[in-house]
Each structure stands twice: as C-alpha cells, then as structure tokens.
Amino acid sequence: MSPNKKVVTTYLTGLGNLDWATVAACLADDVERVEWADGFPASGVPVRGKAAVLKDMEAPRKFEIRATRMTEENHVVVAECVVRVPMEKGGTFVGENCAVYELENGKIRRISSFVAENKHPT
C-alpha cells in the first residue's frame, strides 16, 4: 500500500473510532473539507483549518466506515466506502461514500466527500 493510501486508511479508521488525535495527525493545518449529502444543511459548504474540520466532524457514537476500493494518481487518493452509523432512536444508517483526498507532505490537505443513503443494503 502506498504511503498516501496508508494515511487515508489511518484517517478512516480514526474517524470511525472517534479517535480525534489520530484523525488530527493525518490532516494538514490548512486542510479544507467539503461534504456533499442530501438533507444536510451544511452540504457543500467548505470548512477550513484543522480545528474547524475536526469540530465539524464530531459524532456522538462510533461508526463503521470501510473502504471497498481505493485508487491513487499523483497525490490524490479516491476512496469508495460503505458507512454504517447507529442511529440514536435505533436502526442503522447505511450509506455509500466516495471521497477525494488531496495529500501534500504526507498529510491530507483537501477532502471532497459525497455521501448518499443506501436504501437497499445487502
């Protein structure tokens, strides 16, 4: 596995486990993150800076995020993931995620993430 894919894999594992120290270690200080998801008010709004990105990603409980495919060209990693998030009132949100990670000097500098609910999970 390439060094950039390892950074993304470490980031995803830390994110799912709500291990913010691990997530922070993967991010550049000037990181920018944009998440696109139907029904979310902040969809498409860029968040800039490590502290703001970490705050924006806060979650109430651990969840599963598993990469099903990763590709890399130059310093860009594209990861397709399955996301399973336990809901507060029971049940599980199952989503499909595709994220583009731009890396520089071994850190994630930009994340553009697309999430959609999978209404027919297997």
What does this structure look like?
- The chain is of the alpha+beta class.
- It has a single domain (3-117), classed as Nuclear Transport Factor 2, Chain: A.
- The protein is built from three helices and six strands.
- The chain has helices at residues 3-16, 20-26, 50-56, and strands at residues 27-37, 47-48, 64-73, 76-86, 92-104, 107-117.
- Strands 2-1-6-5-4-3 form a six-stranded mixed beta sheet.
- A hairpin with a 2-residue loop joins strand 5 (92-104) and strand 6.
- The radius of gyration is 14 Å and the shape is globular.
- The termini are far apart.
- The model has no long low-confidence stretch (mean pLDDT 92).
Secondary-structure element series: HHEEHEEEE
Strand content: over 45%
Strand arrangement in the largest pleated sheet: 2-1-6-5-4-3
Describe the global form.
Answer: globular
Integer average pLDDT: 92
Number of domains: 1
Structural class of the secondary structure composition?
Answer: alpha+beta
Largest sheet: 6 strands, mixed
Taking pLDDT < 50 over at least 5 consecutive residues as the criterion, the unreliable ranges are: none
Q: Determine the fraction of residues in helical runs and give it as a percent range.
A: 10-25%
The CATH architecture comes to Roll
CATH class category label: Alpha Beta
Ends distance: 28 Å
CATH topology grouping: Nuclear Transport Factor 2, Chain: A
Radius of gyration: 14 Å
What is the number of helices?
3
Topology, number of strands:
6
